[in-house]
Design goal:
The chain is mainly alpha-helical. Helix content is 72%, strand content 0%. It contains 7 helices and no strands. The mean pLDDT is 84.
Length: 124
Amino acid sequence: MTGDAIFADLDRKRRALGMSYAALSKKSGVSLPTTKRILAGNGRPSFQHVIALAQTLGYAIKEIVPAEQLKQQQARLQARRLAGMVQATSALEAQGVDADTRAALENDAVHQLLTGSRRRLWGA
């Protein structure tokens, strides 16, 4: 979920609760202008402000994902994307790869992403 989607979701929840911006601002301890700016998806809000608004609206952070797990998830996403590009290119050449080969490509890519450049891991 992107930041804009999160902020839009927070604003939908505020409206569903029938809570004014002023009431949300007061209950969360976030200034009214900042509350409005965040829920409109403008600016670069602080993490603390977003959490304060979310908690006031009934959301809670239940778990922080460990760094290694997050890196594994990112590597797997990148690997799937890369293997998909190989699959698509191979299919265009009438030499599509089977599911086992694709899985092997993904696993190799995960390993390379986790042991290689962080730029490749987190890049688009």
